[in-house]
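Q: what sequence does this backbone want?
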């Protein structure tokens, strides 16, 4: 913040302001209060900048953008840590580039993506050329951080009579129901919902932006499940074949149809499946819509653990080349009764032509995590242990 403010002050001293939309997102109330106290906030606003609310903001798609229409090609430059398609403004035509706050600020001053602040000169209010000074700043504020407004509302000390009331008609809030425990049987004839091609981040699995209003309603937000993933069968997003109807439909709609038929399904993924944000909905949604297993070449570590917590099976190919052998209309049998710590899981893939082949899948379950799977989820396991402890007290 202080380095960006120093660049802006240099521009203001030369009588110029931002030539493009310039927004600042304080990461917390503490940061907002500190930059307000130390003068940077006033500098940003004098420059023509807009200081946004203390929130994730455009970084996660919470941006009510009005300067361009959806579908209109444009470029944004930000210092946020994500630039997936449509991430910031839900506009797939937006080209998003990530760089430092210093360069982001310099581009806003110049209004030109070709601008190099090390060599290119600007013109001041009188038309005289000048180079921006190198930015200066402090790593930590001299007077420490200002905690800002205390907005925490503590719950009552005695919560025994507290009841959380959620309207059944709400489309934004929904009480969670426990997931079913494993039935103790091997899985047979499990269809492949989608074979994902290439990068499948948590944004592809559960998009943010306008979907965030449904974060408290699992069923509604599940309508974005895997809608950004690319189907290896047709190289399209959100278009997969329903094995029962033969028709192509959206991924969530197809998953719901399988669930209504009592059919559990699996997803086939590529390298580093689930990279990006540690978004728990990316694991909750497949579980809610009837998923059993996610089988990939490799996982992003946090997403792999999140899947385990929801009672799903994150599995990896012992031989990554097996990915290429799988057809989207294959079905698979899984010897779940032999799922043990440190041992591979045998899976048989069966093609529509009657041929089949078997392979080993690897996993990283420890014994406690296997209990999550057997009980249906980590929360189910916690509830079970709490009930057992209360019964023995």
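A:
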């Amino acid at each position: 913040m202080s380095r960006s403010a120093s660049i802006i002050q240099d521009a203001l001293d030369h009588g110029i302001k931002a030539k493009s939309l310039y927004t600042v997102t304080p990461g917390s109330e503490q940061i907002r209060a500190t930059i307000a106290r130390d003068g940077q906030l006033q500098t940003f606003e004098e420059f023509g900048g807009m200081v946004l609310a203390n929130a994730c903001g455009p970084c996660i798609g919470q941006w009510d953008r009005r300067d361009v229409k959806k579908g209109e090609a444009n470029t944004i430059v930000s210092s946020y840590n994500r630039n997936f398609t449509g991430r910031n403004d839900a506009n797939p035509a937006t080209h998003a580039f990530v760089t430092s706050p210093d360069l982001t600020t310099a581009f806003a001053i110049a209004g030109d993506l070709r601008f190099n602040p090390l060599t290119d000169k600007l013109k001041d209010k009188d038309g005289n050329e000048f180079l921006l000074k190198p930015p200066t700043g402090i790593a930590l504020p001299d007077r420490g951080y200002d905690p800002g407004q205390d907005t925490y509302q503590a719950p009552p000390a005695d919560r025994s009579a507290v009841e959380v009331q959620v309207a059944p008609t709400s489309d934004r809030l929904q009480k969670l129901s426990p997931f079913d425990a494993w039935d103790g049987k091997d899985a047979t004839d499990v269809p492949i919902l989608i074979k994902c091609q290439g990068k499948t981040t948590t944004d592809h699995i559960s998009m943010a932006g306008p979907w965030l209003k449904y974060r408290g309603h699992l069923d509604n937000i599940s309508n974005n499940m895997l809608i950004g993933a690319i189907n290896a069968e047709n190289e399209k997003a959100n278009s997969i074949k329903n094995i029962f109807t033969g028709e192509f439909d959206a991924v969530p709609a197809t998953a719901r149809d399988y669930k209504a038929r009592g059919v559990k399904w699996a997803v086939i993924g590529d390298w580093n499946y689930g990279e990006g944000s540690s978004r728990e909905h990316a694991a909750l949604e497949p579980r809610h819509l009837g998923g059993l297993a996610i089988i990939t070449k490799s996982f992003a570590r946090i997403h792999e653990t999140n899947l385990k917590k929801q009672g799903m099976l994150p599995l990896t190919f012992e031989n990554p080349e097996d990915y290429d052998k799988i057809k989207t209309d294959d079905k698979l049998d899984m010897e779940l009764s032999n799922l043990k710590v440190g041992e591979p899981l045998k899976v048989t893939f069966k093609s529509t032509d009657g041929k089949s082949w078997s392979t080993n899948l690897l996993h990283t379950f420890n014994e406690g995590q296997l209990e999550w799977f057997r009980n249906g989820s980590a929360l189910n396991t916690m509830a079970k242990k709490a009930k057992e402890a209360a019964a023995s007290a």
